Amino acid sequence: MKIAVIGGGSSYTPELIKGLLDVSKEIQIDEVIFYDVNEEKQKIVVEFVKKLVGDRFKVLISDTFEEAVMDAKYVIFQFRPGGLKGRENDESIPLKYGLIGQETTGVGGFSAALRAFPIIEEYIDTIIKTSKATVINFTNPSGHITEFVKNYLGYENFIGLCNVPINFIREIAEMFSADLEDVLLKYYGLNHLSFVERVYVKGKDVTEEVLESLKIKLSNIPEEDFPAWFYDSVRLLVNPYLRYYLMKKKMFKKITSHELRSREVMKIEQELLEIYKTADRIPEELSKRGGSMYSTAAAHLIRDLEADEGKIHIINTRNNGAVSNLPNDYVLEIPCYVRGGRVYPISQREGDLFALSFVHTVKMYERLTIEAYMKRSKKLALKALLSHPLGPDVEDAKDLLEEILERNKEYVKLD
User: 93 with 107: CB under 8 angstroms?
Assistant: First the structure.
C-alpha cells in the first residue's frame, strides 16, 4: 500500500510517521512518499524520518504532486497554503480592525480558506485522474475544506480530520481509567465548533459526573475559561474554540497581550529543523508545536479503513441523517462507523438548539465563502464576512476584504 503525504516538510511529519509505524504491525504499508513545495524543509524532515523508519517501509520524496499521488491508496493533506507567513497575516490583519486574529475561526479562517480552495481544487482534479485515493485532510480550515470538496467539487473519498475529538476522548478515558475504545460520545457540530451532549464509558452514562468534575476543575483555573455557571446552563461540553465566539473580549485581550502564535511557531519550527538534522528519535521539543494525538487520529483511521472489524471515529463528513434536525448535506464533525474503506455516520438523534444555532450560522458563512470563490465575487465575499459571528461591522468590511485580497493575491482574485 502506498501512502502520499502532502506537506512533507511539516515539523509534524515525524509524529505522523510514528503513528504509521505503530499501525504497520497490523496493516501492510509498502511505501510513504512525501511532497512539499518547500524542498529544503522537506529534505531535512524526510532524512530524519528515514532514521525512524529503518527498513519497515520505503520512504521516498517526489518532485511533483502528480507523481506523489499516482496509484496511492491514501493521501494525507497536512500542507499549509501560504506557509506560516500566511498564518501570520491571518492572525494579524483582523487585529487592526478590532477583530480576533485566529487561523481557523472568523476572518483568519476566511482568508485561509480562500488560499486553500484553488490548491485543493487542482489537487483533487489530479487525484481523480491518477489514483482516486482516499484523502485524509488536516489542512485548515479542515471542516470548511471538506464542505468544499464533498459538496462543491463532488469528490466522495475525502475525510476531514482534527485532533480535538480524540483529545476529548483521551481526557475522558483518563478520568475513568478506561481505554479510548471504552468511550462513546454524543458528539456533533462543525470542525472547531463542536459539542458533546452525552458521555458514555463502558456503556454507562457518565455525563453528569464529567460535568461536575469540570465545574470543580474550573474553580482552580484562570478566568479565561468558561465559568461553572455556563455548564450549568448549557449542559454541554464544548469545543475549546467556542471561547472565541462567547468570550470575545477576553480572547481579544489575550491575543493582543502575547506574541502572535504564528511567530512563536516559526521559532519552534526552526528549532525543530535544527534538531532533526542530527537527532535519531522524536525530540521532546515537538510537544511545543501542538497537535497532540494528531498521529493517532490519522494512523488509526487508516488502519480501521483497511480492516473489517468496524471502529468508531469522529470525522468530518456529510450528516446523512446522523443529526436528525440538521440538513443531510451539511458536512459535520460526527461519529462514524469505519469499516472496509467506508464511513457510515452514526445517529446522534436531535441536536441541542443552542449548539445548532452556531452550526447553522457558521455553515451559511462557509457556503457563502465557497460561493464567493467559485464565482470570484467580492460581493459574495462581503456577505460571507458580514454573516460570520466573528466578522467585521459594515464600516470596516470593504477595507478588510481589500486588505485580505491584496495580501493573498497570488492565490485568489475576486472581482
Answer: yes
Residue-wise pLDDT tens digits, 195-247: 999 999 999 999 999 999 887 776 666 566 888 889 989 999 999 999 999 99
Residue 70 region, left (φ>0) first, then alpha (ψ -120 to 50), else beta?
Answer: beta
Find the mean pLDDT for residues 75-96. 96
Count, residues in the chain: 415
Amino acid (one-letter) located at 253: K
* 146 HSE (CA, 13 A, CB side): 30
CA angle 326, 332, 338 (to 5 degrees): 115
* Banded pLDDT at 292 (limits 50, 70, 90): confident
Cα 252 off chain centre by: 22
User: What is 269-313 written as a DSSP string?
Assistant: HHHHHHHHTT-SS--GGGGGG--TTHHHHHHHHHHHHH-SS-EEE
Choice between 62 and 216, residue whose per-residue pLDDT is larger:
62
**CA of residue 79 relative to chain centroid, distance:** 11
Q: What is the DSSP string of 84-111?
A: HHHHHHHHHHHHHTT----SSSHHHHHH
Mean pLDDT of 368-387: 98
Exposed, middle or buried, 379 (CB in 10 Å: 0-12/13-18/19+)?
exposed
Kindly list the catalytic residues.
241
| Distance from C-alpha of 134 to C-alpha of 73, rounded to nearest angstrom | 6
What is the pLDDT at residue 295?
87
Measured torsion, CA atoms of residues 301, 307, 313, 316, in degrees rounded to the nearest 10: 60
Separation between Cα atoms, residue 268 and residue 287, nearest integer Å: 10
Predicted confidence (pLDDT) at residue 5 exceeds the cutoff of 70 = yes
* Lowest mean per-residue pLDDT among 158-162, 222-226, 401-405: 222-226
> How many whole angstroms separate alpha carbon 234 and alpha carbon 356?
12
User: Got the DSSP string for 243-270?
Assistant: HHHH-HHHHHHHHHTS--HHHHHHHHHH
Q: What are the grid coordinates assigned to 403, written together?
A: 486588505
Q: How confident is the model at residue 355 (pLDDT cuts 50, 70, 90)?
A: very high
